C-alpha cells in the first residue's frame, strides 16, 4: 500500500481480524443460544463453545493492541457528528464485550467448580475461587452480555447496510478484504 | 455526492435491509427456542421436575436428598489396556462424591425401592477430572428425553390419592414399550438392604480408547465388597426417616466401605445408544480397581454440594457413546446446577450432626 496517500481502508491485518472475528463471534452467539435450548446437541455445542471462546479472547486482545498501534481511515463525510460519536462508543462497547464475555465464561466455570477443558487433556487453570452465588451471578451476566453483544452487532450491521445501500457512501470499502482504488458503486 | 434515490427504489432498499436484519434475528430466536415454546428444552425439563416435586430452592432438582463422601480409587492397572485415562494407570487418586435417592424431594422419607445413586469425581494427577453418576438399577427406564419427561408426569403423585395414577402409568408403558420391558427387568432385580451393599451401574454406555488408539464400547458397575443383604420390611429402623443414610453413616464410621469397578466390554453391535436394554451376559468383564469410601459428611459442609456430577466431564481415554441421554443429562444437570447455585440454601435432611454420629 502506498503510505503517501491518505488511508481509505483499515490496515490489512485489521480487516482480516474484523472478518475472522465476525464469523467466529456470530457462530459463537448462535452456539451459545442453541446450548440453552438444546438437549441432544448440547454436548457438541459446549465442547466447541469453550475453546472457541478462548480463541476469541486471544484474538480480541491481539485486535485491541493492533487497534492502538494502527492508523484508522477517516470517517466518511456522510457521517454526522452524532453518528461518529455513536460509532466510537459502539466500537468501545464491542471491544469490551469481546474481551469480557470469554473472561466471564472462564470465571463462571471456575466459580462453578468445572474443569476448563479446551481439547483433549489441555485445561486452563481456574481464575476465580469456587463460589455458588458468584457462579450463578456470572452465569446470568454471561447471558445478558451475550444478548447485548448480539444486538450491538445487529445495530452495527444496520448502520453499515444503511450507509452502503441508502446513503451509498462506500463505507463498506473501509473494511473490505479487497483493495480497490475506486470505492464508487456501479449504479 | 450521490443523486437521490427514486422513492420506489428507496422503499425497496429499506425493505430489503429490514428483511436481512429480521431474518438474522429470526434465525437467532429460532435457535434459542423462542419460536418453539412447546419443545422440550433443559429448562422445560427442569420446570417439569419442579412442578412434580414442588419448589425446593437450593437443592438438586433430581436426586435431591443426599450425603457427601470422600475416599480414594486404587487402580490395579488392568484398565490401561482399554483406556489411556490416567485413572486406569496403576496408582491411587482422591475421590469426592455423593450418595443420593432419586426424586426431587430433599426431605423425602427413605424407602427401600427408591432408586439409589452414587456420584463420583476423580481428581487425576494431570488436572483432568472424571465425573460419573451411577444408579442401583440394572438398566435405565427410558431411552429419550421425551420418554423421561412423560415418565415424570405419569408417575407424579395424584393430588387426591398421593400416589401415581395407575391409568397414566399404563398409558405411559403403552406408549413406550421399551420402558415397560426395562421396568420389568428393574423389578426383577433384587434390591439390597442399603447404600453400602448396592451395586451401582453406569447405565449409559461410554467409549474407552487406549494408548494405541483402539476404542471399545463399555458399561461399568461398582460392585460392593460388603455382602448383599435383602431389604427387610420389618426392620425397626424403618420408622427413621433417614434410615438408609443413617445405616450408611454407621457403616462408614465402622470402617471403609469398598466397591470394585468392573468394566463390561461391549461389541460394536451392542446397543450403546439405548440404556433400556441390557447387554448379553456373556460379555467379557474386567475388574480395574477398587473404590474406598472412608469419610462421610453432610451436604451442609461438603464442597460436593456445589459440584455438578455431569457424566460428560471425562478425561481423555473415556468418551460418551452415541446414547442421546448423555447429552440430555449434561444439559439438564447444568440447568439444575445454575438454578440451585443462585438460590438460598436450607439445611440438608442429612445434617452435619447426623453424619458425625
Number of helices of chain A: 4
User: What is the general shape of chain A?
Assistant: elongated
Silhouette of chain B: globular
Average per-residue pLDDT of chain A, rounded, comes to: 93
Strand/helix succession of chain A: HHHEEH
Summarize the structure in words.
Chain A is mainly alpha-helical. In chain A, 65% of the residues lie in helices and 4% in strands. Chain A has a two-stranded antiparallel sheet. In chain A, helix 1 runs antiparallel to helix 2, helix 2 packs across helix 3 and helix 3 (81-111) packs antiparallel against helix 4. Chain B has helices spanning 7-31, 42-53, 145-154, 166-175, 177-188, 243-254, 324-341, 352-356, and strands spanning 65-75, 91-101, 116-123, 129-135, 200-201, 206-209, 215-224, 257-265, 285-297, 318-320. In chain B, a hairpin with a 5-residue loop joins strand 6 (206-209) and strand 7 (215-224). The longest helix of chain B is centred in the first third of the chain and has 25 residues, at 7-31. Chain B is built from eight helices and ten strands. Classes of the chains: A mainly alpha (187), B alpha+beta (357).
